[in-house]
Specification:
The chain is elongated. It has one domain. With 49 residues, the chain is mainly α. The protein is 67% helix and 0% strand.
Length: 49
């Protein structure tokens, strides 16, 4: 059975849009395009070497 009082004690409100945006942009995130660029660069370097 769910203890609602206990769950309410654990509750943390989510970030609003401005806070979330700041948290996201403060981190250097790698996306799939970064991974593909790195793989292509490594392939070029291996062909030269």
């Amino acid at each position: 059975m769910i203890d609602y009082e206990e769950e309410l004690k654990k509750f943390e409100p989510c970030l609003d849009v401005a806070d979330a945006e700041g948290a996201i942009y403060e981190h250097e995130l790698t996306d799939i395009l970064d991974v593909i660029r790195e793989m292509l660069q490594e392939a070029k370097d291996n062909r030269r070497g």
